[in-house]
Amino acid sequence: MDDAEDLVFRALADPTRRALLDVLVERDGQTLFELCTRMAGAGVTSSRQAISQHLDLLAAAGLVRVRREGRYRLHDLDTTPLAPLRERWVRPDERTDP
Amino acid sequence: MDDAEDLVFRALADPTRRALLDVLVERDGQTLFELCTRMAGAGVTSSRQAISQHLDLLAAAGLVRVRREGRYRLHDLDTTPLAPLRERWVRPDERTDP
DNA sequence: TTGACATGCAAGCAGTCACTTGCCTAACGT
DNA sequence: ACGTTAGGCAAGTGACTGCTTGCATGTCAA
To answer: Is domain A4-80 classified as CATH 1.10.10.10?
Structure first.
């Protein structure tokens, strides 16, 4: 099972990746080093490679867009894959979609 | 990391468990055997023990309430742990909470 | 009571995951 | 040109995960 939905859920399964999303939601265009610093500040102690790999996984899930600018790798958050997820597992009697 | 939030996200990381939630959202009080049958019907081929372990994990995450009735084990869905999850990673400029 | 049905428990196994380690490439400043 | 800065690649490792296997328990019907 390797469809898009599965990638998103598996990406969210790790606390470090969720913390990365927490940092990314505030501002687009943060570099890898910037993210490492802010993660360390948030109490998450992960190496640069570890964080880079987490970002690769988030990118594979479509949650993060990666672009190059000079020697920097900039990261933008994309929350659109989360939209269908938010409406899932709502009881039929609790649905409020008019 | 073993807090409640982490349990929920890890519980959602498995496609079989998500399929179980899909089946559970329709009706409360389904037995283990009933769930096995409906899972098989949905194209998910998992043994009874496997499904039972998945349900245990969902129960540990607070997503499923388990109760006994005679020789049956009945399962009720509880979506309240999903509520905070739905409002997460929403851009500050996209927030619409009045 | 006896047998069938619904489920529980626990050890073991193979695959996956997160992380490290070590070295390499590319872009900037001086 | 040279060193520094930002990041890339890939193999290896320990722990965790999902699943199986085998047997045990408890409940009901006849």
So the answer is: yes
On whether any CB of chain B is under 8 Å from the CB of A57, the answer is no
Among A6, A8, A12, the residue to mutate for chain B (most B Cβ within 10 A): A12
Q: What is the pLDDT of residues B2-25, one digit of tens each?
A: 699 999 999 999 999 999 999 999
pLDDT digits (tens, 9 = 90+) for B57-86: 999 999 999 999 999 999 999 999 999 999
Q: Is A12 on the interface with B (CB under 8 A)?
A: yes
What are the respective helix, strand and coil percentages of chain B, to the nearest 5?
55, 15, 35
For chain B, the structural domain boundaries read 4-81
Statement: B4-81 belongs to CATH 1.10.10.10: yes
Q: Are A64 and A54 spatial neighbours (Cβ–Cβ below 8 Å)? A: no
